Amino acid sequence: MAWSTADVVRMSKVTSRTLRHYDEIGLLPPAWTGSNGHRYYTETELLRLQQILLMRELGVGLREIRAVLDSRADQVDVLREHRARLVAEQERLATLARTVDRTIAELGGSRDNDMVHINRPENLFEGFEPSEHDAEMQAEVRERWPQAWEQSRRAVEAMTPEDAERWQREATAQMIRMAEFMAAGTPAADAAVQAEVDAHYRGVCRFWTPNAEAYKGLAATYADDPQFRANFDKIAEGLAAYQQEAMTVYAEARLR
């Protein structure tokens, strides 16, 4: 039995555009293509699509997925491995749900504008894991700037939990102040903005000391990397680009 693209879209909720892309990159070719140009899929392709979607849920990249599927590993063994990872993810999500429940319970008694006090701040983060993306970025930094990476690693290891919490608060406050400058239409080269960037640079120097090129590279990362850009733009749309512009002005004027 065979199913059309429309059938597969309906069953899997995968878009036809995604199916075409999977075909183009050789990840999921259809069983055949009719004279009318329509693609048709058999049970073999549906099982392969299921494995693709499972691995996508687990954060595996398309290139790695294709390598796994093309390795001709036993399908049952592959599915057992996927199931084990899904069960582990289910347990992690359950932990996250408990974390949120505790936070709701902590905050539920506070309905006014008073400062909320969390009894155990570390409980706010139970169940969270460093992302694969963070690991990839660290590997890239280590390769490109090994001395800076080692300097940063030692600084981070020396931080106490209180230091880390204070640093995170300071970083967030800086982002908010930059967003206020941006909202007011203050030019990136304005003295007040550059003073804020100077504070940012001195904060970075607690971990490593970038030269002009490296600091502009960091600025470009804030604007170009999806995860960094999203963090800035959660505070204010366009903040990542504004931060990059201000840091670039600073690097060109004050760094070598």
TrEMBL record:
Q: Provide the alphabetized UniProt keywords.
A: Activator, DNA-binding, Transcription, Transcription regulation
Boundaries of each HTH merR-type domain copy? 2-71
Q: What is the lineage of its organism?
A: Bacteria, Bacillati, Actinomycetota, Actinomycetes, Kitasatosporales
Q: Which Pfam families match?
A: MerR_1, TipAS
| SUPFAM superfamilies, sorted | Antibiotic binding domain of TipA-like multidrug resistance regulators, Putative DNA-binding domain
- InterPro entries per UniProt: DNA-bd_dom_put_sf (IPR009061), MerR-type_HTH_dom (IPR000551), MerR_fam (IPR047057), TipA-like_antibiotic-bd (IPR036244), TipAS_dom (IPR012925)
Please give the name of this protein. MerR family transcriptional regulator
